[in-house]
Amino acid sequence: MKQPAGLTWDAVRVSLDSADDVLKQLGDKSGAVIEDPREACLYWLVAPGAAEGWTLPHPVLQQGAFVPVPPAPRTEGPAVHWRVPPGPGRGLTDALRLHTALLEATGGREDPIRAAWFPFIVHASDCPTCRHRPTACATGLTRWTRYKEALATARGRKMTGTQRPE
């Protein structure tokens, strides 16, 4: 049954090709983990907002997203099941530990688009000038340009000059 994320937990979705390494690194420090064989992924549950701003290539499902949550006793597939069942002292995973394990499992690789977007949006949310025109100050323009360059690189195009927001 699908449950809404963002209320009592957020979920970090990790593909099965990285998940076993993450489980090994966390060991007994892992909280409860859901396995979805059909989607070939595991979900780690973390405190709401604890993974805010992560720039890893693993989606963080927050408010507005739904996660398949199995019944408590289901610990085997082929359907969605608990890979690491919840229990006393085993609920949410510490987000910092999970982040560290995910960095190790991905060889330190972060998503370049998210890594560029996050500093821009944090600046724009605190800058009264950028709130009205995102590139009206030097810092906003620099961070916006880095974001657009990362986006263009990901799409296989080269940026020409300083491209401003549409």
Care to describe what's here?
The chain is an alpha+beta fold and about 170 residues long. It is about 35% helix and about 15% strand. It contains five helices and seven strands, in the order ββαβββββαααα. The chain has helices at about 15-25, 95-105, 110-125, 130, 140-155, and strands spanning about 1-5, 10-15, 35, 40-45, 60, 65-70, 80-85. The strands form two sheets. Strands 5-2-4-3-7 form a five-stranded antiparallel beta sheet. A hairpin with a 4-residue loop joins β3 (about 35) and β4. α1 (about 15-25) crosses α2 (about 95-105). The N and C termini lie far apart (about 40 Å).
Set down the secondary structure blueprint:
Elements: E1 2-4, E2 10-15, H1 16-26, E3 33-36, E4 41-46, E5 60-61, E6 66-68, E7 81-84, H2 95-105, H3 112-126, H4 128-132, H5 138-154
Antiparallel strand pairs: 1-6, 2-4, 2-5, 3-4, 3-7
Q: Profile the largest sheet.
A: 5 strands, antiparallel
Q: Hey, roughly how much beta strand do the residues contain?
A: 15-25%
- Return the string of H and E elements: EEHEEEEEHHHH
Tally of alpha and pi helices: 5
Gross geometry = elongated
Q: How many β-strand stretches?
A: 7
Short description:
Strands 5-2-4-3-7 form a five-stranded antiparallel sheet.
Labels describing this entry:
single chain; 7 strands; alpha+beta; two-stranded antiparallel ribbon; 5 helices; 36% helix; 166 residues; disordered C terminus; five-stranded antiparallel sheet
